[in-house]
Amino acid sequence: MLKRTEGIVLRNRPHGDADLIVTYLTSDSGIRSLYARSPRKVGSRFGGSLEPLTYARISFVGKEQARLPRLIQSDIIRPFNTLREDMDSFVRVSEALELTVRLIPEGEPSGRAFRLLLEVLSSLEHTPRNTLLLSFYKVRLLDLTGFAPRVGGCARCGAETERFYPGEGATLCRGCGEGAGGFIELHPSVKRLYSYLLRTGPSTINRLRLTDAVYTGLEGLISSHIGHTVVERLNTREFAEVLRTC
Predict the structure, then answer these.
(1) For residue 91, is it within any domain?
(2) How far, in Å, CA of 184 to CA of 193, rounded?
């Protein structure tokens, strides 16, 4: 069976001496991992089209429900080179890509996530140091996949509260949160920003002006929730912390 689609490369990993396993977020079938034969050899027909972040038109063959179809063609639509050339930007984007792989089941259609990632990468290409765009992406991806934290009033009784309990994935009042473990105190500005990110688009992010405290509070909320709900530790976050100490 021959299939054609569009996809964004999330990651690749070596397979044997010269082959690669390339993982895409596709426009019509969600996450797909494909086998690429000999792309690391000089003169490969794939060229640089299998690099992470590359948006390409791809063709692959394999039986229906095959575990690892074979990639036979990859034509670059948009390379997003500028995001790979800046190490800080690439590491931050890589964290978002890793989260995408972990949240979206392989083979499950996720056109909204594909469009979201493409829009965010397009915006980042113009402002690669705008870290709020990546915070926006993580918030919206969590929401699309059903993993978003519940931030607002108390999730149990509706009372006003600024306490977010990562272990519960929600804001709870003092009474309802008793025995629920540790909590993070959210400034009202952080709650308002989180709510705004859920209903806006990437084109508005560049117009926002935040204090360091509000941005740090938002990232603390997102990171603690991901750590309790999705994965304890993202590999790319650990790598970023190592780079900062070098």
Answers:
(1) yes
(2) 16
Residue type, 217: G
pLDDT per residue rounded down to tens, the chain (246 residues): 899 999 999 999 988 778 899 999 999 999 999 999 887 665 567 878 999 999 999 999 987 666 789 999 999 999 999 999 888 889 889 999 999 999 999 889 999 999 999 999 999 999 988 999 999 999 999 999 999 999 999 999 999 999 999 999 999 999 999 999 999 999 999 999 999 999 999 989 988 999 999 999 999 999 999 999 987 666 665 444 433 444
Residue 106 DSSP code: B
Spatial neighbors of 137 by CB under 8 A, at least 6 apart, are 96, 116, 117, 120, 202
Assigned token pair, 161: 């509260």
Domain match, 39 and 95 both: no
Whether residue 226 is contained in a domain is answered as yes
Distance between CA atoms of residues 132 and 218, nearest Å = 9
Question: Where residue 40 sits, what CATH number does that domain have?
Answer: 2.40.50.140
DSSP letters along 150-199, please?
B-SS-TTT-----EEETTTTEE--TTTTTTS---EEPPHHHHHHHHHHHH
Domain around 94 = 83-151+186-245
Residue identified by tokens 């990632």 is: 117
The domain tally of the chain equals: 2
Q: Output the pTM of the full model.
A: 0.90
